[in-house]
Amino acid sequence: MADFDEFKAYFEPKGYRMGYLATVGARGRPALRPVTFFLSGRKLYFCTTTGDAKVKQIRKDRRLEICIPVNRGRWRGYYRIAGDADLVKDRRARQRVAKNFPAVEKHWEGPHDPNLTIVEVKRAASRYLPPGKAAEVDVKL
User: Fold this and answer.
1) Which residues lie below 8 Å from residue 93, measured CB to CB, with a gap of 6+?
2) How many angstroms separate the Cα of 124 from the Cα of each of 38, 63, 70?
3) Among candidates 80, 65, 5, which has minimal Cα distance to 31?
4) For 58, which of 31, 35, 45, 109 is 20 to 30 Å away at the CA?
5) What are phi and psi of 61, to 5 degrees?
6) Cα(68)–Cα(53) distance, integer angstroms
7) Nearest alpha carbon to residue 118 among 45, 61, 16, 54
8) DSSP string across 40-107
9) CA distances from 65 to 102, 110, 115, 132 (A)
10) What is the per-residue pLDDT across 111-137, written as a single tens digit (0 to 9) for each?
11) Which SS3 state, helix, strand or coil, does residue 26 take?
12) Is 18 helix (H, G, I), strand (E, B) or coil?
């Protein structure tokens, strides 16, 4: 069974991973897009521009699901995580989280830029398809 340490290993050496974020969009339809995810401690985050559609969707309905592809040689797998989004507003928390994701300084004017929204993925259920396997397993992340 996969655990957090194995999950975390997929983020190394860069500290972030591309994946896919699904939110509840217009008329209740799924809205799916690629997003860069990163870890701070044991918490999973992504950043986006405050005026972006995904922020509006999260403010309306916090439910989300993400998929993070994982590769091992020629084999492919993924983590699927369902849960809720929490917008990180606390000043100290924003500073701490932004330290773990260098793109904050590259794309925004630091962790307190009002155009930056930091989102924590609150994990409720996680599934893992190990590379080269045919069946998902439940995992605790």
Assistant:
1) none
2) 18, 10, 20
3) 65
4) 109
5) -150, 115
6) 21
7) 45
8) ETTEEEEEEETTSHHHHHHHH--EEEEEEEEEETTEEEEEEEEEEEEE---HHHHHHHHHT-THHHHH
9) 24, 27, 24, 23
10) 999 999 999 999 999 999 999 999 999
11) helix
12) strand
CB 118 within 8 A of CB 97: yes
- Please say whether the dihedral angle defined by the alpha carbons of residues 110, 50, 19 and 124, taken in this order, is positive or negative: positive
Is the pTM of the predicted complex or chain greater than 0.90? yes
Residue type at position 109: E
DSSP code per residue over 38-57: EEETTEEEEEEETTSHHHHH
Q: Which of 19, 23, 52, 25 is nearest to 38 (CA)?
A: 19
